[in-house]
Automatic annotation (TrEMBL):
InterPro entries: SCP2_sterol-bd_dom, SCP2_sterol-bd_dom_sf. The lineage of its organism: Bacteria, Bacillati, Actinomycetota, Actinomycetes, Kitasatosporales. It holds the Pfam family SCP2. Signal peptide: none annotated. Residues 72-148 form the SCP2 domain. SUPFAM superfamilies: SCP-like. This is SCP2 domain-containing protein. It comes from Actinacidiphila reveromycinica.
Length: 159
């Protein structure tokens, strides 16, 4: 995948990249390139784009009548643990998924913590939640059953 390794990620307009193409890009990039991307100025734009698309990828029939708040903590933007982490919340209720781009005072049923490259792999279908969990790249706090079924609530493109 030399072409992807040469891709100018700083200039890429992630808002114009379709989900399947995004999955292909994530799959083809070496871990160091993903880490560099998510440590640079594009980080927040990429995260905002991914979370901004969640409501369109949401499958209400899969979630059923579930009402759940999920807090996502994406680590790795600062030099100290917890320094500069990005926090988003997704609320699944009444057949819809809404996203908040910050931590709220609400108590989540599930909190997920992972580094940015692992997050990108997970949401692009290039990593499995259970595998990330069992290799300690994903920390789960709260409703483990919700965590296990979360990927079924979204139409996750595959590369």
């Amino acid at each position: 995948m030399a072409a992807l390794d040469d891709l100018d990620l700083e200039a890429l307009d992630f808002g114009a990249v379709e989900p399947r193409e995004f999955a292909r890009i994530v799959k083809g990039l070496p871990g160091r390139r993903l880490a560099e991307l998510m440590a640079g100025p594009q980080r927040r734009r990429v995260l905002d784009e991914v979370f901004g698309r969640m409501h369109t990828q949401f499958k209400p029939e899969a979630a059923g009548g579930r009402d759940a708040l999920i807090r996502w903590r994406i680590t790795g933007s600062g030099t100290e643990p917890g320094d500069g982490d990005d926090v988003y919340e997704t609320h699944i209720a009444q057949g819809a998924c809404t996203v908040t781009s910050e931590r709220t005072d609400r108590t989540p049923q599930l909190s997920l913590t992972m580094a940015a490259p692992e997050f990108l792999r997970l949401v692009s279908g290039n990593a499995s939640g259970p595998t990330l969990f069992f290799t300690r790249k994903l920390k789960v706090k709260g409703d483990i059953r919700l965590a296990g079924g979360l990927t079924y609530f979204f139409d996750i493109p595959r590369a």
